[in-house]
């Protein structure tokens, strides 16, 4: 193992390091320089090898090793610059344009009344000038139903050039959709109505991809006709074909909480089952050498077509490359090493697209396979069972453990939760998923429609079982938020622990214990800080309003949202989870300004257990005072020039900035999304004149106040 790892680590590690380093550097200025350095380094290696005996290079192997490491490092940088389209002078965003010519480069997805798809910009039109361009664009079209307007892959359209840059998240801990799109080489987006897309003649893109997407659509429609239950159809389309647009969020959450979300991602197991089915069907071709090679070519072609059919996710591509190498080695009667195949496939994918290095799916896929290849055999040998059934169950347990241990740091960093019953849930779905794969392929390939009722029943049974496991007490540990430093310490701890146990190195075990103590100290510090925190977060929302007053692990939120709303889960909940808030109380604006609400049991509980104090149109939180101003203050004046830290303006009251600033001693204005645009503009324009700060909470980042 050590030798295998050394061979490919010397290639992959410096290559990845080059990608990481050049990601943070100004690539446009280093483009030519990095290419020259790479060529010079390569020529130096050739000279060293040519003069190997003459100048006795074998005495200076360390120099040759450094040159090789530097070569792969520079190669990583060159590929990173090459794939960074935004730095290319031909990118469409560098030119003025009235219209853009695009073609649909992905399968359109319909969700929430919006039809979205990725488009490739091929030309920009400005006046009478037409110029070729490059770059991807996220197109979002308003559509009441998916059938009203449904563009297809390869279709060419003319659209207005009213695109904008993909936005950064405005609220703390909110999902960074801009970074997620950037990993797909998408840096701009555009909102259009169906009338603004003008269809042009012709087709662009790959004919093979067009055929694969058309075929997948046909197969998805077949499942839709055969399966009555909506959840069963969604799981079948996802499991067999990688079509995820119809998955119910609650069902997806059940799979995530039980640690079985990988079952809904077409991966190595799925591609492996496809290979076994093909091997069985083409077994008759083993008669002679010519037919064997024809079978190999046919199997490889069908595997890659299935990869194309399911969307070419990182896990599927990894599986396809590894399986292709395995099939080729088998045909040549060679025995390929697992590590050779694993690292070589990663190198191939990163050469194709360096952005995959930052993709969570890519990272989790390779960590899981590394766990299966390296850690699982060692875990399996720890206990020996006599009975074959016991051995099989233990093998499945060790497979789940190995994959979960190595993916744990990255998984909790991205998804902030850990399923405690992952062994139980993986044992539960092991047999159903295998049966479903075989039955689903039989329905599609051999038109065995009589299997559909049993196929649907097994999916429903599996879904209900996972929902039961997810509802068990303490099924999931939530609110696991790690900083990058804590993630690094956790990774080093697992590395030293596993290598120390595997090789019986006391020094490694000692290092792992020290790192564990350090990690526990960092987590304890975060927990203690959460217990004594006093913070105010005024969230930036486009159609709602929300301000959270956080004391310890209890938050009172003045908002028109409820914890069950999707907007609350997307915009507010991540920030509360990051601050380790476990108790959330929501009150509306009317309750906040109504003096009679203090007579309710809810208010007395609020006052008793939270320092937020509410009075008529005022609130006080840890010495921070806020005036709540709405339409009831229309054309009214405040007496006594009271002092406030902030004025929260809601509902477009008829109040002039100069009057408000004269009556109130305050220099900070909060304007939520309930105000009319003209009022927001008025306050923004007058802010310089009257020397106060205005925060428009549907355009700017959330406003944070740390009182401790």
Write a compact overview of the structure shown.
This protein has five domains: 82 residues, no CATH class; 114 residues, OB fold (Dihydrolipoamide Acetyltransferase, E2P) (Beta Barrel); 267 residues, no CATH class; 48 residues; 173 residues. The strands form four sheets. Strands 1, 2, 3, 4, 5, 6, 7, 8 and 9 form a nine-stranded mixed sheet that branches. Helix content is 53%, strand content 15%.
What would you say this structure looks like, in words?
The protein is of the alpha+beta class. The chain folds into five domains: 2-83, no CATH class; 92-205, OB fold (Dihydrolipoamide Acetyltransferase, E2P) (Beta Barrel), CATH 2.40.50; 211-477, no CATH class; 484-531; 534-706. It is built from 22 helices and 22 strands. Strands 1, 2, 3, 4, 5, 6, 7, 8 and 9 form a nine-stranded mixed β-sheet that branches. A six-stranded mixed β-sheet has the order 16-17-18-19-20-21, covered by helices on one side. Strand 13 (546-551) and strand 14 form a beta hairpin. Helix 8 (268-281) runs antiparallel to helix 9. The longest helix is centred in the middle third of the chain and has 28 residues, at 388-415. It starts with a helix and ends with a strand.
């Amino acid at each position: 193992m050590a030798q295998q790892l050394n061979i490919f680590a010397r290639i992959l590690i410096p290559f990845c390091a080059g990608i990481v380093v050049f990601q943070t550097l100004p690539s446009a200025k280093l483009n030519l320089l990095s290419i020259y350095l790479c060529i010079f380094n390569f020529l130096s290696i050739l000279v060293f090898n040519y003069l190997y005996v003459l100048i006795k290079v074998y005495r200076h192997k360390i120099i040759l090793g450094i040159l090789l490491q530097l070569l792969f490092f520079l190669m990583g940088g060159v590929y990173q610059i090459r794939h960074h389209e935004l730095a290319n002078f031909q990118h469409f965003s560098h030119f003025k344009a009235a219209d853009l010519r695009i073609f649909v480069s992905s399968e359109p997805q319909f969700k929430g009344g919006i039809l979205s798809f990725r488009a490739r910009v091929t030309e920009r039109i400005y006046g009478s000038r037409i110029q070729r361009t490059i770059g991807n664009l996220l197109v979002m079209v308003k559509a009441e139903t998916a059938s009203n307007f449904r563009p297809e892959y390869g279709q060419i359209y003319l659209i207005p050039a009213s695109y904008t840059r993909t936005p950064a998240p405005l609220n703390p801990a909110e999902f960074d959709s801009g970074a997620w799109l950037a990993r797909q080489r998408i840096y701009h987006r555009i909102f259009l109505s169906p009338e603004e897309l003008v269809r042009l003649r012709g087709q662009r893109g790959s004919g093979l991809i067009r055929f694969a997407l058309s075929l997948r659509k046909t197969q998805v429609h077949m499942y839709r006709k055969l399966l009555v239950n909506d959840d069963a159809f969604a799981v079948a389309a996802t499991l067999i074909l990688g079509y995820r647009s119809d998955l119910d969020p609650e069902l997806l959450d059940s799979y995530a909480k039980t640690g079985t979300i990988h079952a809904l991602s077409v991966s190595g197991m799925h591609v492996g089952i496809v290979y076994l089915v093909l091997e069985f069907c083409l077994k008759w071709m083993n008669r002679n050498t010519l037919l064997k090679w024809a079978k190999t070519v046919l199997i490889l072609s069908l595997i890659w077509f299935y990869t194309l059919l399911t969307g070419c996710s990182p896990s599927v591509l990894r599986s396809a490359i590894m399986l292709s190498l395995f099939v080729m080695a088998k045909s040549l009667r060679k025995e390929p090493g697992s590590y050779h195949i694993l690292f070589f496939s990663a190198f191939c994918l990163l050469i194709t697209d360096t952005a995959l290095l930052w993709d969570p799916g890519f990272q989790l896929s390779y960590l899981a396979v590394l766990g299966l290849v390296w850690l699982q055999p060692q875990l399996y040998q720890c206990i020996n069972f006599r009975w074959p059934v016991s051995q099989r169950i233990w093998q499945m347990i060790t497979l789940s453990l190995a994959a979960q241990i190595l993916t744990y740091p990255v998984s909790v960093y991205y998804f902030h939760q850990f399923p405690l019953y992952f062994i139980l849930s993986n044992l539960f779905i092991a047999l159903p998923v295998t049966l479903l794969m075989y039955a689903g392929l039989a329905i599609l390939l051999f038109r065995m429609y009589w299997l559909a009722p049993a196929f649907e029943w097994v999916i429903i049974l599996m879904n209900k079982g996972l929902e039961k496991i997810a509802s068990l007490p303490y099924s999931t540990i939530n609110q696991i938020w790690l900083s990058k430093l804590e993630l690094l310490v956790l990774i080093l701890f697992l590395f030293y622990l596993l290598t120390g146990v595997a090789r019986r190195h006391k020094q490694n075990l000692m290092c792992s214990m020290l790192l564990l103590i350090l990690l526990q100290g960092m987590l304890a510090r975060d927990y203690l800080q959460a217990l004594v925190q006093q913070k105010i977060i005024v969230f930036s929302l486009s159609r709602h309003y929300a301000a959270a007053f956080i004391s310890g692990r209890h938050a009172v939120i003045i908002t028109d949202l409820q914890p069950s709303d999707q907007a609350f889960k997307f915009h507010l909940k991540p920030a509360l989870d990051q601050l380790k808030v476990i108790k959330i109380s929501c009150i509306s604006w009317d309750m906040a300004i109504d003096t009679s609400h203090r007579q309710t049991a809810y208010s007395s509980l609020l006052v008793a257990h939270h320092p937020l104090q509410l009075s008529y149109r005022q609130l006080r939180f840890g010495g921070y005072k806020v005036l709540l101003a709405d339409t009831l203050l229309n054309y009214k004046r405040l007496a006594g020039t009271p002092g406030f830290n902030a004025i929260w303006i809601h509902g477009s009251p008829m109040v002039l900035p100069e009057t408000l600033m004269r009556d109130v001693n305050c220099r900070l204005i909060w304007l939520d999304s309930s105000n009319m645009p003209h009022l927001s503009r008025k306050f923004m324009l007058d802010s310089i004149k009257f020397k106060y700060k205005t925060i428009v909470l549907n355009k700017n980042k959330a406003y944070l106040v740390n009182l401790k």
